[in-house]
Amino acid sequence: MGNVRLLFWGVLLGLLSALYTRLPHYIPALSGRLPFLPTEHRDLLTSPSGKLWAETLHRYQASVPVSPNHEHSKQADWEAELERQLRFGSKEGGRELEKEYKRQLREVERRAEHAGAENLVREVLPVYFVEHGEEVDEGVLAAVGAEINSLQPQTIILLAPHDTSASRLLVSTASTISSAYSPVLSFTGSPRVASQLIRAFAHTPPLGVPAAGSTLPTLSPRSARVLSAMHLDPEVELVQVLLPVMLEKEARWGAEKWWDAGRAIHDYLHEKEKDLQQVVGAGKYKREYKNIVVIALGSAAPKNPSPSFRALLSSALAHHTSHARELSLHSLYSSSSGSKPRKAVRGEAVGLYTAVAAAGEGEGEMLGRGEVWRLGHLPIR
């Protein structure tokens, strides 16, 4: 029954559609009322005379020039662009750009402040601890040297153990530092940084760290071998700090003294100086970190290391804060030697102690098979 109804309605609609276009011929009054029917104008356009008039009208409209002030003309677009460039190039435009820059700077500082201090972009460069033994892979040293060169530091502070009978740090103040033995190296010194380091050591609380300037412009054979394998940029300045390893074991410095020496370097790298500050507001200053990389030489492994020493060292140096690293490192060396904690630090490890304290915050990362440790993150640039 349903199919019959559908068939009936289909036939009816077909007949109506066939008769729809012919209804105006039978009933003229409906010609203007029925929709979807061709009007007289449309019939006119389809006629030969209508086509002729339409083509003439299009040619006339195309020949009329567009007004220069018309919003869609090329001249109007050029004038708008020229006006915008003149506005930004004028004094008022310069003030607008300066205001926009300050507004963006305030927005960045506001977001960084709300994000928390741990999310701030730190521009301080990392501290490297490098094994100076002869068995160190030179390929790893070359890769680390390439990483340091990519940071483009202005100065490198080299911390090197030095057998001596004088209980003080020796900071090279010479204008040139070179090696007396093969391989032959030569770096430009930085008396300015050297004098600032000596002052930083002297003002380290609670009693300061003994330090003196030295005009000795010579690198030790171990230091020269490491720096030669790293292929550092010859234009970089070098300041050598000799870490005293006393010949008498009883006179050697303890861990606390080396922590103080490292903290003095850390405070110097993060020191606020008026001539290095940028004014960012009324009474506010933005700190700029010094463009200096610290390289400490030494040996982390004790004389008789346990099989698990390397894993324990990695765990100790991977701490985020320097205080946790210092405690873990001191406990590691005390237990690895099989004795109670001693006051004096082994001579080969003084560079590691100083580097850990100088790095401050930031996890330690092992490079290679443990020949090099990077303490602190690489800056985002």
What features would you highlight for this structure?
single chain, 381 residues, alpha/beta, Protocatechuate 4,5-dioxygenase, Chain B, 3 domains, 8-stranded mixed beta sheet, 3-stranded mixed beta sheet, 13 helices, 13 strands, 17% strand, elongated, coiled coil
Task: Describe the 3D structure.
With 381 residues, the chain is of the alpha/beta class. The chain has three domains: 21-55, no CATH class; 84-119; 127-375, Protocatechuate 4,5-dioxygenase, Chain B (3-Layer(aba) Sandwich). The protein has helices at 2-20, 23-26, 40-46, 48-63, 74-89, 91-115, 138-151, 191-202, 221-230, 255-269, 309-317, 322-336, 350-359, and strands at 127-131, 155-164, 169-172, 176-179, 186-188, 211-214, 218-219, 237-246, 278-281, 284-286, 292-298, 364-367, 372-375. A hairpin with a 6-residue loop joins strand 4 and strand 5. Helix 8 crosses helix 10 (255-269) and helix 10 (255-269) crosses helix 13 (350-359). It is elongated. Keywords: Coiled coil. Residues 91-118 form a coiled coil.
Secondary structure elements and their pairing?
Blueprint: H1 2-20, H2 23-26, H3 40-46, H4 48-63, H5 74-89, H6 91-115, E1 127-131, H7 138-151, E2 155-164, E3 169-172, E4 176-179, E5 186-188, H8 191-202, E6 211-214, E7 218-219, H9 221-230, E8 237-246, H10 255-269, E9 278-281, E10 284-286, E11 292-298, H11 309-317, H12 322-336, H13 350-359, E12 364-367, E13 372-375
Parallel strand pairs: 1-11, 2-8, 2-11, 3-6, 4-7
Antiparallel strand pairs: 1-13, 3-8, 4-5, 9-10, 12-13
Helix pairs in contact: 3-4, 5-6, 7-9, 8-10, 10-13, 11-12, 12-13
Keywords: Coiled coil
Coiled coil: 91-118
